[in-house]
Structure formats: C-alpha cells, structure tokens
Amino acid sequence: MALDSDGGASAKRLCADEEGNQGDRISEMLDDLKLKILTHLPLKSAIRTAMLSKEWSRVWKLHLNQDGGSAHPMILHHDLVARTYPSPEQLLELLEQQGGRRLHSFSLIVQTSLMSTSCFNRCLELHVELRNYSAQCRIVFHFPMSSRILARLSLRGISVSQIHYKSAQDFSNLEVIRLYEVGIVDYVLMKMVSLCPALRTLDLCYCKDLSDLGRIFHCRNLRTLTVAECPRVRELGIWTFYQPVCSIRSFRYRGSFLWPFYLPRVAVLSDLCICYNVAIPVDVSGQWFDNTLFNTAELTVLTICNNVLQAVSSLTDAGVHAGLAKVANFQKLKELQLIMFEMKSLNLAGIYAFLKNCQCPILESLFVQLPTEKSNMPVVDAHNDVIEEPPEDVLENLKVVKIMNFSCDLIAVQLVLFFLRKANSLRELLLVAPNINQLNVSDIPDIQQADRLLLNEALANGKLVLKPDNTTPYPLHSEVFAEL
User: Fold this and answer.
1) Which residue among 267, 273, 428, 429 is the one 20 to 30 A from 417 at the CA level?
2) What are the domain boundaries of the chain?
3) For the segment 276-323, what is each residue's pLDDT rounded down to a tens digit?
4) What backbone torsions phi and psi does residue 80 show, to the nearest 5 degrees?
5) Spatial distance between the Cα atoms of 299 and 136, rounded to a whole number of angstroms
6) Is 370 exposed, middle or buried (0-12, 13-18, 19+ CB in 10 A)?
7) Are the CB atoms for 255 and 229 separated by under 8 Å?
8) pLDDT tens digit string along 324-364?
9) How far apart, in Å, are the Cα atoms of 186 and each of 232, 252, 463?
C-alpha cells in the first residue's frame, strides 16, 4: 500500500517536473521562433494560445506591437513608382505567390495614378493618404467600389467621389471610418455611412466642405463620433422627436462655437469632449448647458476647455442657484481633462469654480494642458486679489494629476500648490515642462515660505515629479488634439 502511494506521488512529481521543464523550454525559445509559431496559426488559434500562459501572452503582444519599420518577416513594404516593375497587377500576383505564408502588415506607397480601385478589393484595412498636395484635384476615391470585406478605412488629403452610390452594396464589416482633410460634402457622407450598417467609429477632421452633421446621430450602431476643426460646421440640431434612439456613447468636438447645439436627449454618453476656440456668449450659457450637459450622470470621462469653464463660472456666481443645478451631476466622472488656451487668475478661478460646484465625488485623474504660448494680456486681473479655493472634500479621491506645458509662472505654481494642499489621496503630480531641466523652488518668485516648504517636501518624497517630455498616463481624448 505504501509502495502504491509512493508511486502515485512519484508519478505526480514526474508530471510536475515535465510540466516545469516544458515551461522552461518555452521560455528558453527565441522570440522569433515563438513568433513564427503564432503567426502560422489561424488568428483564433493564435489568440487562444496566447491565453495559455504569460510567456505566450507576452509574445502575442510583441507581435501586435511590432514596429512597422523593422525587418520582421511578416511585414512587407513596397514603393510603387510609375512605369517600373512591378505594375499594380503584377505586385498582387507576387503577393499571392507566397502561398500559405500569411502577412501581418503590408505597406504600399504609390507614386503613380495608374492604379485602379480593384487592386484593393480584398483589403481588410485601407489607409489612403496624399503626400503631394499639388495633385489633390486629380485624386478621387470611389468609396462604393472598395473592398466589401473592408473593416477599417482611413483617408487623408484626398477627395471622395459623388458617384457610383446607386444600387451599391453594403459594407457589412466596415466599423471604423477616419477622414482627415478630406474633400467630402454632406450628402455624400450620409450616403457613405448609410452603406455601413456596422459603423461604430466615425472621425471627421479638417473636412472643410461639411456643414450639417445632425443626421449622423441617426446611425443606429454608431458609438463614437469625432468632429474636429471642420470650419463650416456651425450648428448641431438633433431634436428628440427626430431621434427616439441614439446609440452614441462618445462624442468629441473641437472647433468654433456651435449654436444652436442639441445633443440627443436620449443619448447616454460615457465620455464627452467639448473644446471651443472662442468664448461662449454669456447670454446663451444657461441654454447651452441645458442642451449639452443635461445628462451627465453616466459620464466617466470629460474634456472641456477654458471657454466652457468660464461659462460654468457665469452660472455659478453667487445667487444663481438655478445655474448650480445645471452643472452639478458628475457622480461617475473618473477622468477630467482641462484644455487651457490661456491661463490667468480668471482661468484659475474658473477651474476652482468647476471643482467646487460640479460634484465629482469619484474623480481619480485630472489632466491640465496649459497654453504653449504665453498670453500678451496681463496675469493680474479682476480676480487676482481673492481666489476662493474649493474645500478638500471635492478632491478626496483624486490620485493622479498631470499638468502639461508647465512653466514657473505664478498662476501655474498656484495651481500646483492647490493640488498639493487639497488632494489628500494624491499619489503623483506630474509636471511636463519641456523648457525646464530642474525645478528650483528657491527661484520661484512671489510665493510664501510655507509654499516653498510644501514644494520641496513634495519633490523630496516623489509626489511631485518633473518630466521634460510627455509621458504616461495619457488622457482618453489625447488623440483628438494629437495632430490639431
């Protein structure tokens, strides 16, 4: 009996040893070999394999993050020049001759107009960008003739054709469309999105011919809509009786002030970005909030600019109780980003007014982007004498603060001191300062000795960190401002 028991234990130990050795052998394999195994598997099998262990998962992430500029065998690049071998058709034949070898990525730079749309009729993801802008009038993209299995489409610097839409088939797999500086008019855009029943993400940036985007909100599966710097878009009017259901959960806007502006009443937004390059007129501030920030109960991420902050201040002045009710419900907000086009004491007061009156009880991350160029207007203004700071309890859960474009001017330093004093749960206050190599507290003018001690203590214990370059963490809406 004892022998049988010992034998069973030995068998278990042997099994464990074999498993351990197997794990060791996997970890000792070269990454290129493991990557080759994964890339020869069907996609679903490769994903399942990556879930078996941390090592396979690491290799799978390496595969996904592979630099397009490297010499990876599953990534090919080709520069197609006019009147040279191979022609577009010959290039496709060469790719097909690879047989079972599956490409992860193929990059094609075209320096000829002798290429038909049919060359792309088997693409899953297509990015078309015009680099020679002198030829813009001759580059037209015929969307209805694109690949029917297309999943992602990105166009930049070209125009979209207005023809071939009659009796065109749906693009049932197309989920993402990104248009950057594309010549397209309203009705063509609507025809385009109407052919994409699965469309979930639509980005419209620098599209100067667009003006009326209200009907975009009718797309039944659209989840994320970005409108950035489209100069002719002046209003967004979406009325309740026109839109009984709205699937949009993320709306990002940057550009001129929109009026009238009506987000769908039935929209339940989880993240919202509103950034105006001009001030909101005081006489319409209340109505604007009624139409835009009427339902913030489900918001988890919010990005606003100093022009919106100033409108909040006008609503929250002493005695304006109705204004407080409009902006006081951010119960689920976890991330807040403030884009400051100027930073004076008036703007600092606007930040304080928002944090004091807009009740963000679970706010964890706060990003402040200061202006890159200093305003010619004086820092001292009507609000410079007395700026009331919010109480400590409004920041009780704040853990991370990141201030971009930081400089040692008085207003920026006051903002840093405010967070150090009032955010008791703060773990890190990150200052991104491209022009400052070291923060010398003794060189900062016009602050009290107690404030100097607070800054020195935060630097010593690692809570206050100075970085020359932008680094993690990044706000959710950072891509909206990346190239604008």
Assistant:
1) 273
2) 71-115, 116-268, 292-484
3) 988 888 888 778 877 787 778 889 999 999 999 888 777 766 455 555
4) -95, 115
5) 41
6) buried
7) yes
8) 555 667 899 999 999 999 999 999 999 998 898 888 899 99
9) 11, 19, 50
In terms of DSSP H, where are the helices of 335-442? 345-357, 410-422
Burial class of residue 404 (count of CB atoms within 10 Å of its CB; 0-12, 13-18, 19+): buried
β-pair partners for 226: 203, 252
Q: Which of 438, 442, 441, 437 lies closest to 455 in space, CA to CA? A: 441
Give the SS3 label for residue 254: strand
Q: Which residues lie below 8 Å from residue 266, measured CB to CB, with a gap of 6+? A: 240, 243, 244, 245, 246
Both tokens of 173, joined, read 């797999």
Cross-strand partners of 237 = 262
Token pair of 13 as six digits:
């130990």
CA atoms 276, 282, 283, 287: torsion sign: positive
The residues with which 400 forms a beta bridge, in sequence order, are: 365, 428
User: Cα–Cα distance between 272 and 277 in angstroms, integer?
Assistant: 17
For 292-484, CATH number? 3.80.10
- The CB-side HSE value for 91 (13 A sphere, CA atoms) comes to 22
Q: Could you please report the per-residue DSSP string of 446-480?
A: S--HHHHHHHHHHHHTTSEEEESS--S---GGGGG
Q: Which pTM value belongs to this model? A: 0.75
- Say which amino acid occupies 228: A
Q: What is the DSSP letter of 169?
A: P
How confident is the model over 94-106, as pLDDT tens digits?
666 665 555 555 6
- The DSSP bridge partners found for residue 156 are 129, 180
The helix/strand/coil state of 140 is: strand
19 to each of 12, 15, 26, 51, 399, how far by Cα in Å?
Answer: 10, 6, 11, 17, 42
CB 463 within 8 A of CB 428: yes
Could you give the dihedral angle defined by the CA atoms of residues 113, 118, 122 and 123, in that order, rounded to the nearest 10 degrees?
A: 30
Q: Beta-carbon neighbour count of residue 53 at 10 Å? A: 13
What's the token pair of residue 140? 């037209």
Side-chain half-sphere CA neighbours of 28 within 13 A: 6
